Amino acid sequence: MADQLTVRAYAKGVDQAPRKVSLVAALVRNRTVADALVILEHVPKRASLPVKKAIESAKANATNTHGLDGKTLVISTISVTVGTRLKRFKPASRGRALPFQKKTSNILIEVTGDAKAKKPAAKPAADTATKEDK
Questions:
Q1: For residues 22 and 103, is the Cβ–Cβ distance under 8 A?
Q2: What is the largest CA-CA distance in the chain?
């Protein structure tokens, strides 16, 4: 068995309430990355797109930067936390303005997988052309 490594990816400032995003995140918790992407393709919720993008980002980080095998990746941690709230106002009758807050979410994905098997170094080839060939 090869070394187990953990790679993180963040999606900050997702313009959705954390409660709604965490419902989608719960569907793919502790699954392989390939299974999670297939599940998120078929979930009819708006929150599935940012969760899918965060998982794809973690997969790309793991394979390209850290040299992990893409087939062995498993989602070890997926958490949704409260992001910054944007204070806005809604017009009301008689010239009033009613305040409300737009909620945002932060998504943290941790992916665990095995390192790719390194290829053996190629031996330098001896001079293959002999004097008879010349």
A1: no
A2: 102
Query: Residues in the chain, how many?
Result: 134
Residue in the structure block whose two tokens are 């009819």: 44
Contact 7, 53 (CB under 8 A): no
Rounded to whole angstroms, the Cα distance separating 82 from 19 reads 9
**pLDDT digits 0-9 by tens, 28-77:** 999 999 999 999 999 999 999 999 999 999 999 999 999 899 899 999 99
3-state secondary structure of 86: strand
pTM (predicted TM-score): 0.82
Instruction: Catalogue all structural domains in the chain, each as residue range(s) with its CATH number.
Output: 4-114 (3.90.470.10)
Would you list the DSSP string of 46-81?
A: TTHHHHHHHHHHHHHIIIIIS-B-GGG-EEEEEEEE
CA distance 67 to 99: 49
